Structure formats: structure tokens, C-alpha cells
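Input chain follows. Return C-alpha cells only.
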Amino acid sequence: MTSKLLAVFVGPGGMALVGNLRNFMTSLESISTLGFQNGIVKYVAETDNDSSQLQKIMATVFISLLLVAIGLSGILFFFATYWNNQIFGAHFDYSFVFKALALALPWYAVSLFFVAVINGLGRFRKVIWVTILGNTIGLLVSFIFVWNYRTLGALLAIVVSPALLFLVSFYFVNKEIRFLNTIRVRYFDFKILKNLSSYSLMALVSSVFGPLVLLTIRKKVIAMVGIDQAGYWETMTRISSYYMLFVSTILAVYFLPKLSGAKNNGETKIIFWSYYKSILPLFIVGLTFIYALRFFIVELLFTKEFLPVASMFFWQLIGDVLKVAFLILGYQFFAKKLTVAFIISELASLAVLYFLSVYLISFLGIQGVLIAQVLDNLVYLSVLVVYFRKSLF
């Protein structure tokens, strides 16, 4: 619904700007939460029955995140023009968006913390409710803002909507824990920050550098082949994110806990192959139908103006199959806290993606970016298969 709204009111060019801001927001989200989200889920789950340790975790993480978010807000607010030029370019003036983001960021960061706590407590239904209510609020805010302010409204909706999630997440977390009585400076414990640091490093590398590389590539696309082409790529990326959510949710909720609990290579092998025998084939069948219906999907979710996106499906879907094939292996980095190996492989993959994209754009236009993604995913999958060969074979 949001995609249709954006398609009608902002067009391909506006969609490209929205993509730039979304990439920036993803990086900012990870920095503002210090990349602690997976770690919070793990440690809250482990200390659910230890109220004293749970208090320490809650107080330590909350105070840390709030201080970081306030600091980032100051940087965003007072240097709004600088961020506008970096994200959108000097010929666009959306500095006000970054000032609005500065005011919204602390609320957003705290809401992400609340959701991680609820998840860690095993209240999965409540996580689903938070997600549903958050998406509903986001849709209403997007409709009002986009209807009245077009592209500016779309950008404002992206930064304001997540902050409103605070009200929903606080309600649910406060029903589980007396939150206001838990947050005390005396409970602050640096040991907890040290324990979370490995999760922080892995999350920050993927969630900060990944979106920044995509942002840089999109700016290259705008400069080399035009803002509309960048908008079509962003549109294809949004379609991909819809069906990829199916796999990422199953991995996070079902397979990651199982991998974390696996005691040896034999148990890990069973988990890997259960994924390859069930999820991967189902995903491929689903993508086959999506490819057959690509023209219908584009018109349904967007408008006829976006029909050039249909030509991007083939390479995007090939790349996504390869991505789904290596995702389960990538989760093993988190399950076993293989921090150094993860950082090296992730940075190398991003470097390959960037240089291949820049090189292929000059020859193949926007299709070059999609082919670069396929080649990068193929290389990454090959590397992970070799690295985890003992657990696979």
C-alpha cells in the first residue's frame, strides 16, 4: 500500500530519494542501537528468570542507547545541511527532514530496544502485534504526509513513523516488566557492554557499511544513468524486500536459535540441510511464479510508469536465490560469534559489490548493478561453502 502511494505521488525520481534516505536510516538505526539488538534478544532470553541480571541488562543498554541517540541527534540537527548534501545532493534542499529525524531518533532507538526485549522474553505474539500496529501507524502517517507534501512528505514519513512505534512498544514491554522501576544508574554494568560488543561489531559492519555502499552506488547510478533509473532500481529492491522478509523471519525466529544450540558439526549439518531441503526449494518455486507475474505485480504495487522495472526481475531473482542459499551459512557467524571471520567476509563482499557495480554500470546501465549483485552473491556463497565445509559435508 505504501509503495503504491509513493508510486502515484512521487514517481521514480522521488522513489530514488526515498531509497537514499532509507539506506541512511538503516545505518543510523544500527549506530543508534550500537548493533545490540541480536545480543539483547539472546541475553534477555538467558536471564528471563534472573530478575537482578535482567535489571542490569535493561538499565545498562537503555542508558547507553539513550546517550548515543541524543549525541547523534545533535549531530543531525546542527549539521542538517551537510547531511542533505551528502544523502540527496546539493541541488535538493531537504535539510528540514534531518532536523525532524534528529528529534525522532531517540524515540526510535528506544522503541527498537523495547522490541528486542519483548522478543527476548519470548513474547512472539506481542512482537507481531507491535509490528502490525507499527506498520498501520506508518501507513496512516505516510498517507497524510505524502498526500499533502508529496516527496517531502514521503521523506518525513520515513523519519517520523518509526518514532511513533515507541508508544506501542512501551505499552507492551511495560506489561511484562516494570520498566520505569528497572532503569536505575546503579544497575549500570560495563561487563554487559563487553559481552554485547561482539554482536555490536558484526551488526554494525553489516547494517552500517552495507546500506552506505548501496547509497553510494545509487548516487553513482543517478549521476551516470539518471534519477529515474535509480528509482526503478529502488522499486525492484522494495519488491525483493517483500518476499525476502519471509526467509529472514524464518531464519531469525527458527533457525538462528537452533544453530546457537547446536553442539557439534553433525547437529549443525542437520540444521543446514533441513533448510536447503525445505525453505530453499519453496522459495525458488515462489520466485518462479513472481517472475511469471512480474508485469502484473509492478502495476498492482506501483503504476504503469514503473513498468521498466519488469526488465530487472530476472537478474534480481537469480541474485536473491543465491542470497537465500548463503543466508543460513551467514547466520552461523552470529550463532557461534565468529566475529573476525564475519567482518572480513562482509567487508570483502561489499568491496566486490561496489567495484563491480561501478564498472558494469558504464557498460550495461542499471542492469549492470543487478548483474554485479548476482556475481557478488555467487562469490560470497562459494566462500561460505568452503569456510563451513565441515558443517555442510
